[in-house]
Write a structure and sequence with these properties.
Elements: H1 5-21, E1 24-29, H2 35-47, E2 51-53, H3 57-66, E3 82-87, H4 93-104, E4 109-115, E5 120-121, H5 123-130, H6 135-173
Antiparallel strand pairs: 1-3, 1-4, 2-3, 4-5
Length: 174
Amino acid sequence: MAISRDKKQTVVADLSNLLKAAKLTAFAQYEGLSVADLQELRRVAREQDVTIKVVKNRLVKVALQQTEHLKETDTSALNGQLLYALSSEDEVAPAQTLATFAKTHDALKLTGGISAEGKVLNTNEVKSLATLPSKHELIAQVIATLTSPVNDVMNSLSGNLHALLDGVEAKATN
């Protein structure tokens, strides 16, 4: 069923706003996925702060043209039945979400992506992004690295303190 011109304009405006804020847009072919599978993908994506959109490629191309920093984006890769995963919070979350879901659903095939700067990413680049740790994992690793020397010093001091207390206790019992 065809949608009205007003509805198309609304979809393009919403998509343009999502693209403007997105740090990464990953896209994948979804032919063969059931409605239940798509609902499951949307649920999983929502937990990762990723938005899943199933939109005609023609409307995506119009939305890209309406987004100032994405006007020069090459849209030749946008072919076939595609779904789009976007995130304004994390640079790798869309790729990770689609790659993880594709492991259990063979019908979903990563096709490519568009970076925040408008660079078109091929399938291998998106798969490489999917293997990176998430933003939260990277922050945790940095904090662990920064606090490691402090923890080492505290452990050393507490070990010496325990030895001192054990010595004092041994003298007191004699």
